[in-house]
């Protein structure tokens, strides 16, 4: 009997070890907290495509809009911590949301960081027939018409909403902010002339600018984006306080086994180092995370700093 029990224990241990080694044995779901077409969605798809090939399993995108991303993160936090459900976060849904939405069913500790994916460049774009040729004229128009200009964003709590807030804090003008269920619908309305402009990342709006469906007004970076050579930096346009850098990172539910996190992180590192991904991101005015930025520890500390930063910003 003792030998039988010992044999069973050994068999179960070997089975458990084999199961751990086999991860992932099926497709992984990557929850994107916004509708298709926005920056987070685009970056998630780029990462998912390459990581899926590295892991040997598909990573399926699931877009879950609503409440500035908190609907999606509620679901992501409650998912089984088995490595088969992960989510993409940014400064909005992973940091500012805690200062905006009350009674959230998740906290920063509800998630296990996997690693940073990419960094992005915030931008303000306006409809093509807006009566201002540059930022100086735009701000003069806004000052003369307080509350009449409309800027769209991806919902209160989204990173695009924060771009709007940072822009208005630096510009000190009053405009009306219009929330959508994602950056895609906001951009569509700007192209259609239903709102005067959008607060976005160059990743998702560069194509519309280059095709002259909207006009790039100012980019919140220290140097111009190669893909948008005609869009001035904030300093060049006369608004140096509007300088910022966006980011996207991958998270798993708290309690996800360390081996799964390690395997996902390894796939992320390889994906971000690939020439194909680097080029795809560069073509979208984004750039992959590198070095320590790819570690779970860096993301954890970065989120903590961002939560504090936006708590102070949104209290003003």
Name the features:
5-stranded mixed sheet, D-Maltodextrin-Binding Protein, domain 2, alpha/beta, 11 strands, 2 domains, globular
Largest sheet: 6 strands, mixed
Strand order of the largest sheet: 2-1-3-10-4-11
- Domain module count: 2
For the termini, the CA-CA separation is 71 Å
Taken as a percent bin, the fraction of beta residues is 15-25%
Helix content: 40-55%
Quote the average pLDDT.
Answer: 92
Tell me the CATH superfamily of the largest domain. Bordetella uptake gene, domain 1
The count of DSSP E runs of length 2 or more, i.e. the number of strands, is 11
* Name of the CATH class of the largest domain: Alpha Beta
CATH architectural category of the largest domain: 3-Layer(aba) Sandwich
Total helices: the number is 12
What's the order of the H and E elements?
Answer: HEHEHEHEEHEHEHEHEHEHHEH
Q: What characteristic shape results from the CA principal axes?
A: globular
Structural class: alpha/beta
Notes on the structure:
This protein is an alpha/beta fold and 316 residues long. The chain folds into 2 domains: 27-119 and 246-315, Bordetella uptake gene, domain 1 (D-Maltodextrin-Binding Protein, domain 2), CATH 3.40.190; 122-237, 3-Layer(aba) Sandwich (D-Maltodextrin-Binding Protein, domain 2), CATH 3.40.190.10. 46% of the residues lie in helices and 20% in strands. The strands form 2 sheets. The protein has a 6-stranded mixed beta sheet, sandwiched between helices. Strands 7-6-8-5-9 form a 5-stranded mixed beta sheet. β1 (28-32), α2 and β2 form a beta-alpha-beta unit. α2 packs across α10 and α4 packs parallel to α12 (296-315). The protein is globular. The termini are far apart. The model is unreliable at 14-20 (pLDDT under 50).
């Amino acid at each position: 009997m003792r030998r039988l029990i010992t044999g069973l224990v050994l068999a179960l241990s070997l089975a458990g070890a084999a199961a751990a080694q086999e991860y992932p044995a099926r497709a992984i779901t990557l929850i994107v907290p916004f509708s298709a077409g926005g920056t987070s969605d685009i970056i998630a798809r780029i990462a998912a495509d390459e990581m899926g090939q590295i892991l040997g399993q598909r990573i399926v995108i699931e877009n879950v809009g609503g409440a500035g991303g908190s609907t999606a993160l509620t679901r992501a936090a409650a998912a089984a911590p088995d490595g088969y459900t992960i989510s993409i976060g940014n400064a909005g849904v992973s940091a500012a949301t805690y200062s905006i939405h009350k009674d959230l069913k998740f906290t920063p500790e509800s998630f296990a960081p996997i690693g940073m994916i990419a960094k992005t460049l915030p931008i303000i774009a306006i409809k093509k027939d807006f009566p201002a040729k540059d930022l100086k004229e735009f701000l003069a128009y806004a000052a003369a018409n307080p509350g009449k200009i409309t800027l769209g964003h991806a919902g209160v709590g989204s990173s695009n909403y924060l771009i709007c807030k940072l822009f208005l804090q630096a510009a000190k003008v009053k405009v009306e902010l219009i929330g959508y269920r994602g950056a895609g619908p906001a951009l569509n309305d700007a192209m259609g002339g239903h709102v005067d402009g959008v607060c976005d990342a160059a990743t998702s709006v560069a194509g519309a600018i280059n095709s002259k469906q909207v006009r790039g007004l100012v980019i919140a970076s220290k140097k111009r984006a190669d893909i948008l050579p005609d869009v001035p930096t904030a300093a060049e346009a006369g608004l140096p306080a509007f300088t910022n850098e966006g980011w996207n990172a991958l998270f798993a539910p708290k309690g996800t086994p360390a081996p799964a996190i390690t395997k996902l992180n390894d796939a992320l590192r390889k994906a971000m180092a690939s020439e194909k991904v680097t080029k795809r991101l560069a073509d979208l005015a984004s750039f992959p995370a590198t070095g320590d930025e790819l570690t779970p520890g860096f993301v954890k500390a970065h989120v903590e700093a961002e939560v504090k930063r936006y708590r102070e910003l949104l209290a003003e």
